[in-house]
Amino acid sequence: MNDIGADFRALYRRGDPVTIVNVWDKGSARMMQSLGAQALATTSAGHAFSMGRVDGGTLSRDEALSHAQDIVAAVSVPVSGDFENGFGEAPETVAETIRLAQEAGLAGCSIEDTALPDFTSYGFDLAVERIRAAASGARGLPRDFVVVARADGVMLGNYDCDEAIRRIRAYEAAGADCVYVPAPPDSAALQRIVNAVSIPVNVLASGPFAKVTRAEFAAMGAGRITIGGALARVGYGAAITAARDILQGDFAGLQRAVDEDDIKDLLAP
């Protein structure tokens, strides 16, 4: 039997990063695969928007798992879950989330160090124990499963890059397969983060880092590139811009619509 988790792990190469496209429904997943994406990931933001909610602790674990199952069923490439904080504070809860994620067909998932919906950061010791539980749970699964450990406090303004580096080094020691510090202040800080560990580092190509090319991320030594909810926001942004004009009586923006035949081609099995 093919091990989708092992296939996913094989894509993680420091200095030769795989670009993982974050998708928000079955249609976007099928389209991104048709366009050549080697792997996909869910996006908690995109999923939440599609449910009429804001991002950050508004989705239940059952909803995230059902959503992930739908996306996995729509494609043949590996899919990783954006599972926020693992849907609970206790390390045991995080380990259970890992088991359920694998049962849903995911090849891996990311776990944040953020208490939701307050957006505070877990203390260092608890954050590390949560990743240790996730990694231990993953190693006990019947197939390979990639655990991505996130240090989100820099993005949230809860701690600095020195603390993020302390955390990702501890995450590596606790068994994480990949680490991720979203939204460092600049490229120099990102380089420090990549250099701080020996395992692959995920970089977020969003905000100011959307100007950085894959080749430049590769030169830094990145092992994986994701886009978070950015592509979903691009899509929603185009719809919002067009709708504002439509509601003022100007329909010209609809001329930018993609041809339906192009969509049919991308959705074809």
TrEMBL record:
<dbReference type="InterPro" id="IPR015813">
    <property type="entry name" value="Pyrv/PenolPyrv_kinase-like_dom"/>
</dbReference>
<dbReference type="GO" id="GO:0016829">
    <property type="term" value="F:lyase activity"/>
</dbReference>
<protein>
    <submittedName>
        <fullName>2-Methylisocitrate lyase, PEP mutase family</fullName>
    </submittedName>
</protein>
<dbReference type="InterPro" id="IPR040442">
    <property type="entry name" value="Pyrv_kinase-like_dom_sf"/>
</dbReference>
<dbReference type="InterPro" id="IPR039556">
    <property type="entry name" value="ICL/PEPM"/>
</dbReference>
<keyword id="KW-0456">Lyase</keyword>
<dbReference type="Pfam" id="PF13714">
    <property type="entry name" value="PEP_mutase"/>
</dbReference>
